[in-house]
Amino acid sequence: MTAPKPRTRIQEKNRARVLEAALEVFSLHGFRGATLDAIASEAGLSKPNLLYYFASKEDIHVTLLEGLVDTWLAPLREMRADGDPQSEILAYVRRKLQLSRDFPRESRLFAQEIVQGAPRMIQGLSTDLKALVDEKAAVIRIWMASGQIAPSDPHHLIFSIWSLTQHYADFDVQVRAVLGEDRDPLAEAEIFLETLFSRLLTP
Q1: Structural domain for 118, as ranges
Q2: Key word DNA-binding present in the record (predicted)?
Q3: In sequence order, which ranges of 34-84 are alpha helices (DSSP H)?
Q4: Mean pLDDT of successive 10-residue stretches along the chain, which has 203 residues
Q5: Residue of 88, 72, 181, 195 whose CA lies nearest to 132
Q6: Residue at 33 is within a domain
Q7: Which CATH number is 11's domain given?
Q8: What is the pTM of this model?
Q9: Is 59 part of any domain?
Q10: What are the distances in angstroms from CA 150 to CA 63, 134, 146, 157, 193?
């Protein structure tokens, strides 16, 4: 089987333009609301030119989601079993908040995929994501059993961290409408969530 030709610099640049444009369109309109015409227009390319790089709207969407998974799993992977339990969990909360600050469009893309039943990433959720969460939940359970942190359900503890951090990306408009534009929601959230989880985790 002949190996595919390596992409030229201009091909790589145009693929990146398409993915950046698609991220903007998908994060605003979701998969169903996005069109190839809208993505091509956002990228500054013709639709036929876009289709030279990607076979379909779904091909672009799957490429974005596949690139997102590693970014999304990285903060949890960094939780160390040999670290101080409360410090490790609070550091995970901070890393998840940082993702909401740095990658709000990616967060909304991920959320929209989940809300729609995750048709393009259910396999990864039930394998890679589940395996990692189960692994870290087992670590947290050991910390709880040894009395280093207060007992609770480790899986739901992780779920609560997801919901309380990703909210600031997925519902940014709502948060800013309530707080006003002169406040920094994520800076305030970090202080609040550290207090909240510290109290929850303290034996």
Answers
A1: 65-201
A2: yes
A3: 36-43, 47-53, 57-77
A4: 65 93 93 94 95 94 88 94 98 97 92 87 84 97 98 98 96 95 95 98 97
A5: 72
A6: yes
A7: 1.10.10.60
A8: 0.87
A9: no
A10: 40, 19, 10, 11, 16
